[in-house]
Amino acid sequence: MFKKVLIAEDHEIANISVQKTLHDLGIHNTKYVYYCDHALTWIKNAIRDGEPYDLLITDIEFEDDDSPQEIKDGLSLIKAVKMVQPDIKVIVLTAKDRSALINEMFRENQIDGLVRKARRDGQHLREALQTVYQHRTYQSPDSKKFIQEQNSHEFTQFDLHIVKLLYEGISQKEMPEYLQQRDIRPSSLSSIEKRLNLMKDVLGFTKNEQLVAHCKELGFI
Amino acid sequence: MFKKVLIAEDHEIANISVQKTLHDLGIHNTKYVYYCDHALTWIKNAIRDGEPYDLLITDIEFEDDDSPQEIKDGLSLIKAVKMVQPDIKVIVLTAKDRSALINEMFRENQIDGLVRKARRDGQHLREALQTVYQHRTYQSPDSKKFIQEQNSHEFTQFDLHIVKLLYEGISQKEMPEYLQQRDIRPSSLSSIEKRLNLMKDVLGFTKNEQLVAHCKELGFI
DNA sequence: TATCTCCTTACGGTTTCCCGTAATCGATCG
DNA sequence: CGATCGATTACGGGAAACCGTAAGGAGATA
Q1: Considering its fold, how many domains does chain A have in total?
Q2: Which residues pair with B207 in a beta bridge?
Q3: Within an 8 Å CB–CB cutoff, is residue B53 touching chain A?
């Protein structure tokens, strides 16, 4: 089993449980941190000392507080960590379902396991630890189901831009101007309308309100 | 300190930590359940056996799964529990900030403590346990701050109804019909428009998209 | 260069939404 | 009973969004 594990998770309550789970599995050399920046520092120091971590368990969403951080979310942390230690195993622990981002990370071999914070998450974490230790990838059942449901529409950068503008209160009529300023193409009102229609159609929505709420909920914007 | 505590929390990882926290404080007579219905049953049985619980620690959001439940969320659970045991102390543990609902529960003396799942939530839970045991109420600092920020607009039932309809993809034009069917008043298009304007005005929004996303994010709908 | 195709843009008619004003209703009070 | 005030509803003009169709442009191919 893994020997040396780093846990990056801002919620103290979640952090305690992960530690306890590892402890129960006989992993005693664990370090837990509440900030991404700290996580990266510990990873680097461990390499410097010739005793690198085997595994990083990290959340995705980290809350901002009064101590400003360089790295603000788990995905950025993973990228930074993989730069300095490409062979480290990574298990992601997340409350939200961000299928698009997560799928991409799996494809790029940036992560080895995904556990969604849900009813049986403790069990799933144990399974993930076992599976990833055997050099296989793991996804908790909830997230698998969700990803299957969810692959109905692949959002392009353009899609996300216009949804984000909607969320910021920009009217469709004003959008062409905004998009041109940012050198985003296409930029015409027609294209925006067409694209919004397509998204709503695929997702079974009738109103932009639903689309914006949906994207917000999934963490796309 | 409390002697007998019931924990209702669907996430196994959160549940483990709460148990551990209680254990560290010397509270060993704890029961943890993953469903609201189970929680109510245990409360009732404890009363029947003459050994009622001192304290209920409960989440608010419970995820649906394949085992259908009578009580689907923490607030309903609290109401049901208070019916059978009005003197039980209640600490709520929640990830989202539902200031309106929570404030109401505090006012009605339905809950004694509120801990938001955040960076220092373990610490806050310990503080809540101490404070509530002394018959005082407790709110974790995050939630206090949030409630202050948030009191810009007090959403009425009517407000939430129309926002919810928007979220469901109903056009404003169709809303009067819906509202009349459900005996909600007022129901005219004018009233709906006026109310939407007021909400957007207070919150500094220009579009319904923002309003819906905002309410969704705060768990109002 | 001519042609075909795909993507983008332009345009016009219809619906919905927005917003101000005026009429109606209902309860309270002198 | 009439007056008054607040809340609700009705209405109408103008703006934005919606939707189908047609025109324009860039790239690929022969």
Answers
A1: 2
A2: none
A3: no
